[in-house]
Amino acid sequence: MSSRGLFFLVIFSLSALSGFLAENEEPAGLVMNYYKDTCPQAEDIIKEQVKLLYKRHKNTAFSWLRNIFHDCFVESCDASLLLDSTRRVLSEKETDRSFGMRNFRYIETIKEALERECPGVVSCSDILVLSARDGIVSLGGPYIPLKTGRRDGRKSRADILEQYLPDHNESMSVVLERFANIGIDAPGVVALLGAHSVGRTHCVKLVHRLYPEVDPALNPDHVEHILHKCPDAIPDPKAVQYVRNDRGTPMKLDNNYYRNILDNKGLLIVDHQLATDKRTKPFVKKMAKSQDYFFKEFSRAITILSENNPLTGTQGEIRKQCNLSNKNH
Ligand code: HEM
Ligand SMILES: *[C@@H]1O[C@H](CO)[C@@H](O)[C@H](O)[C@H]1NC(C)=O
Ligand SMILES: *[C@@H]1O[C@H](CO)[C@@H](O)[C@H](O)[C@H]1NC(C)=O
């Protein structure tokens, strides 16, 4: 064979091989800018709505960020989180793990804006993922290019949710194992928990560290503040009592979280363990020093999370309304 022929043969087999790999590595169907032909304005509309909502209610961005964890981590990014309870089925939103989640009605605001422009085209699961991406930017975090093309599930996963979402006091071994199951390693877990650099934690999730005795692992300077915010061992369920996750920069997604947890100011047991467990502590220290490193790992982990087991092609449906599957209309 001539060297030219050999050259083409090599190129041909390389491209066949990479085609083969791509087919097996990519989650089938997810691509960049999936709606470029069917609804070219889709991503701009979402961005615009996220910005408008953020202007009115800053905490919507916290919700978009928490949503991507609670939806994508439970088996699939399929917007099952957004479904309301029906007469027979409990919604994921109403389980204990979803305690404190808010702003779901503003997802409908975004969906309505898209339906006006391109009815029946853009899935609620893509809205959930892209609103998280744009919310992260509102909070001063990195811009993370994310793929689209997800379709919406038809059923609630409330019954299996606890097998996936760790509790506030879960051991680091369980936390690391559950994230490893979807391909997120220790630095990825450390970076994702950096989301607790914004938002709040209600006293019901904290009182076990305060009463009857204060957890000696908590920084005494911080205890004073927490006790002030959570004065009752059994918080009044009607009084919305909570502590801000990061007193220093509560509205910014930044690496202050890592300095806090190294300073024993982590609110949840999992936050505290992240800073003390030998498998995660080195990454906590590195992220406390470098915002760039935090953002790099955070972007990588959010990307993996956002591509967890999506419904694509002809699976699932495109919901008309994000809180209801179409058959329930
Ligand atoms: C081990 C894993 C995790 C546990 C056990 C956990 C648990 C919690 C708990 C108990 C709260 C307080 C809820 C309340 O009282 O209102 C909370 C808040 C929050 N979590 Fe997590 N979380 C975890 C991981 C994550 C991840 C991976 C993200 C996002 C990437 C995230 C984003 C948030 C946000 C943004 C808030 C504040 C929400 C608000 O203020 O509305 N969490 N989390
Ligand atoms: C974690 O906290 C819950 C209450 O929120 C409690 O029922 C459970 O026993 C605790 N688990 C561990 C391992 O301490
Ligand atoms: C779903 O959301 C719509 C629009 O926000 C609301 O009017 C409706 O009551 C919700 N449906 C249920 C079953 O809660």
UniProtKB/TrEMBL annotation:
Required cofactor names: heme b; Ca(2+)
Residues annotated as binding heme b: 196
Positions annotated to bind Ca(2+) 1: 71, 74, 78, 80, 92
MF terms (GO), sorted A to Z: heme binding; lactoperoxidase activity; metal ion binding
Chain sites annotated for binding substrate: 166
GO cellular component, as recorded: extracellular region
Subcellular location: Secreted
Main location: secreted
Catalytic activity, as annotated: 2 a phenolic donor + H2O2 = 2 a phenolic radical donor + 2 H2O
Record site: Transition state stabilizer: 66
Listed EC numbers: 1.11.1.7
Location of the Plant heme peroxidase family profile domain: 29-326
Domain of life: Eukaryota
Record note on cofactor: Binds 1 heme b (iron(II)-protoporphyrin IX) group per subunit. Binds 2 calcium ions per subunit.
InterPro entries per record: Haem_peroxidase (IPR002016), Haem_peroxidase_sf (IPR010255), Peroxidase_pln (IPR000823), Secretory_peroxidase (IPR033905)
Pfam family, one: peroxidase
Positions with a binding annotation for Ca(2+) 2: 246, 249, 254
Keywords: Biological rhythms, Calcium, Disulfide bond, Glycoprotein, Heme, Hydrogen peroxide, Iron, Metal-binding, Oxidoreductase, Peroxidase, Secreted, Signal
One record GO biological process: response to oxidative stress
UniProt keyword annotation of Disulfide bond present: yes
Gene3D superfamilies documented for this protein: 1.10.520.10, Peroxidase, domain 2
Similarity section: Belongs to the peroxidase family. Classical plant (class III) peroxidase subfamily.
Function according to Swiss-Prot or TrEMBL: Removal of H(2)O(2), oxidation of toxic reductants, biosynthesis and degradation of lignin, suberization, auxin catabolism, response to environmental stresses such as wounding, pathogen attack and oxidative stress. These functions might be dependent on each isozyme/isoform in each plant tissue.
Name of this protein: Peroxidase
Species for this entry: Fraxinus pennsylvanica
